[in-house]
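step: validate -> pass
step: tokenize input -> pass
step: predict -> running
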Amino acid sequence: MVEGIHFCALTKGFVSASDSECLMFSQDYFLLNALFNDESKSDINVKITCTKEKEKQIIVNNSEIKPFSRHIGRVPCITFSPQEIVIVNGAPAERRRFIDNALSQTDRRYLDDLLAYRRVLQQRNAMLAQLYEQHRSYNDMLSLWTEQLAKLASSIVHARLKFAALFLYHFKELYSQLSVDENPAILYRCSLGSISADTTQEELYSLYIAKFKEVEKQEILRTQTILGPHRDDLVFLLNDKEIKKYASQGQMRTFLICLKLSQHRFFSEILGEKPLCLLDDVFSELDSRRTADILSILETCGQTIITSTEIKEQSNIHALSIETLKTNSPK
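step: predict -> pass
step: emit ->
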């Protein structure tokens, strides 16, 4: 159920599986049909079909959606699963994916810039490889790709800096409800070097242009773009120490849960409506006190769907037991 809801909200599987991997074994296709209501009580009907041979089709309120990115943000949604602990202790790409997901659902321009940036980055890297093969150090086309990339990069990083500042406010407030005697912090580590949250988009563009000129020869030798938002990272700290190096598993899990709850607060503030919460196995490895604290916060979060191996005794939780039905295959 959680997988299906996530697919209808964000056009992909809950655990980042490919579309073909979401098909049941021995099945040729899947069909999803969901009805959502936003804060204004308007209906949003989402139908998704996917087969082994054809690309998936997404129809929203009887209109086909292409490209699929146009649907992102229509049904705001946050998720939690134990596998997402890699956001806290994994590679920088996981944290970039986290911030991109949050901003793409709340800012259409950010999503458009991000998709355009990836296309331009691919073209620029191809040009760098071509220059390397030709043993050349400059090309007019490289300059054009660099200017486009710098413009998009400055817009993306400027949005990320604003996000980090606002997000940290919500994060600290929520973290204080889940933990004591710990001071969390979130820093944006930019490939440009040290920049402040007050740096303007124009200033970022100028910095990118200057930096690209400095590293141009190095980039040609490596045949890849070595700076930009695709190289940036979020740094998570507890008591001034980087969490992925020094924190316990319990601290990391609490940090992740708080990231997700803070994302809910961020969505609510920006969009003016509460996003849907999909929480998979959120209470495992948590003690009763922390579980109670999380349930208390979730009471303010609107509709929340939680999967758990145990039923939680809470007045406002409606439990539904789901059992796997086994049928005998025909002989």
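step: describe -> The chain is about 45% helix and 15% strand.
step: cleanup -> pass
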